Amino acid sequence: MPSANPSVETKEPPPAARLTASLVRSALVAALGGLLFGFDTAVISGTTEWLQSHFELSDFALGFTVASALIGTIIGSITVGRPADAWGRRGILFALAGLFLVSAIGCALAWDWYSFMFFRFVGGLAVGGASVVSPMYIAEISPARYRGRLVAITQFNIVLGILLAYLSNYIIGSLQLGPSECRWMFGVMALPALAFFFLLFLTPQSPRWLVARGRVAEAGAVLKQCGSDPAVVAAEVREIQESLNLAQHSLEEPFFCRKYRKPILLAVAIAAFNQLSGINALIYYTAHIFKMAGADQTSALLQSVIVGFTNLVFTMAALSVIDHFGRRKLMLVGSVGYIVSLSAAAYAFYTGTGGLLLLGSLLVFIASHAFGQGAVIWVFISEIFPNRVRARGQALGSFTHWIMAALISWTFPMIAAKSGGHTFAFYALCMVGQLLWVRFIMPETKGVSLEQIQKRLGID
Q: Where does 277-389 have alpha helices with state H?
């Protein structure tokens, strides 16, 4: 593991690197996978009561129903790496857009519990794949000086999707549509899924994937299109070729080996801590939590919108500073905020005060997540693996994230029904562990090219 003084020395980016319309457009389009990821993740939060009554589910079965999408997400995240290497990041994004569309329509028209579970599983496959491919694609097309902000657009779109899901649920819930109300909540996701599919035609392939496939001239053209000065493109292509080093390293070489130990452990740690904060319990069960504290259905949905808006605002703040302050400082601030807010939420349940104290603590919690872990996780995982195994590394990080999300989401209704205070106290304790990990182990990666990060982690 890295030493106790883990900061990675930064390197001043070449002045020629610049933002171009093509780069920004491609990043925004790829990040729509994040928007659908967020929407699909959060939309179920407004339907848990309907699901439980309509399908006559126990607390255990409700947890499994919510987690059904996460089972698909786990499978999608761990299996998408090799197809992304074989068919390209852009080609896989097209397939994911199709899966999002099928899931939205299928959940809206589901004729029984089993069909609903199947279409949520399909949506989970898309979410898992998007959590891997969207940030990886953006990282590979972005100059080092802009990479943090551009990859963080994925997280911005995730929280925008979460807010849109909460807002959509609130609007549909206020229309009094009767038995079909929750079906509309799921069905509206078909619109952004269609937009995502057609906008992908405007994006290029990843230049690093093109180099790996021997399509060097195309890779150079994409690098120019994405902001590299023509005078340095040849040098950038050579650096990518050296990092791939296909004369000595095959794209099919073993991933779980000693030389990749550092990035593997870093990716697993940040992904596990992300979910041990309890963030997905809050996202999936936002309305449920507020109703546990005494709010009615409409008030709970409105408070969910407030949580989603707070998430968006602080994600925007993190996006604006992540390439200036770096990844570690944001994680440190977020870790402290986690500990304070989760402790306050636990106190609210232990004392039965609920109300404004619970809402306030959850707003601080979501702000801490948005400014820290939420903004950093996908950026950091997309940076720390060498080009030749990045797809598999990103898949491992996402797989860990979603395994933990499934465990948290499945167990939350059962544990919270017995003691909401114990649940939040456990999450707070886990975040003390994250604070120590960030302070003593996590390296800084801001402003360093992907190829240089590889060298500084000691990987040949």
A: 279-284, 286-292, 297-325, 327-351, 355-371, 373-383
Q: Please give the DSSP secondary-structure letter assigned to residue 446.
A: T
Q: How many other C-beta atoms are found inside a 10 Å radius of the C-beta of residue 388?
A: 24
> Amino acid identity, residue 397?
G
The DSSP code sequence of 386-441 is: -GGGHHHHHHHHHHHHHHHHHHHHHHHHHHHHH-HHHHHHHHHHHHHHHHHHHHHT
Q: Which residue has the higher pLDDT, 116 or 232?
A: 116
Segment 239-249, tens digit of pLDDT = 887 777 644 45
Distance CA 250, CA 128 (A): 26
Nearest to 379 by CA among 428, 327, 419: 327
Separation of alpha carbons 335 and 172, rounded Å: 35
Both tokens of residue 178? 């009767």
Q: Cα 168–136–251 angle (5° rounding)?
A: 145
Give 113's contacts (C-beta < 8 A, 6+ positions apart). Answer: 55, 57, 65
pLDDT at res. 369: 93
Going from the C-alpha of 257 to that of each of 33, 173, 260, 441, 451, the distances in angstroms are 31, 51, 6, 20, 19
The CATH superfamily label for domain 21-456 reads MFS general substrate transporter like domains (1.20.1250.20)
Distances (CA, A) of 167 to 11, 42, 174, 303: 42, 10, 11, 10
What is the DSSP secondary-structure string of 61-125? HHHHHHHHHHHHHHHHHHHSHHHHHHH-HHHHHHHHHHHHHHHHHHHHH--SHHHHHHHHHHHHH
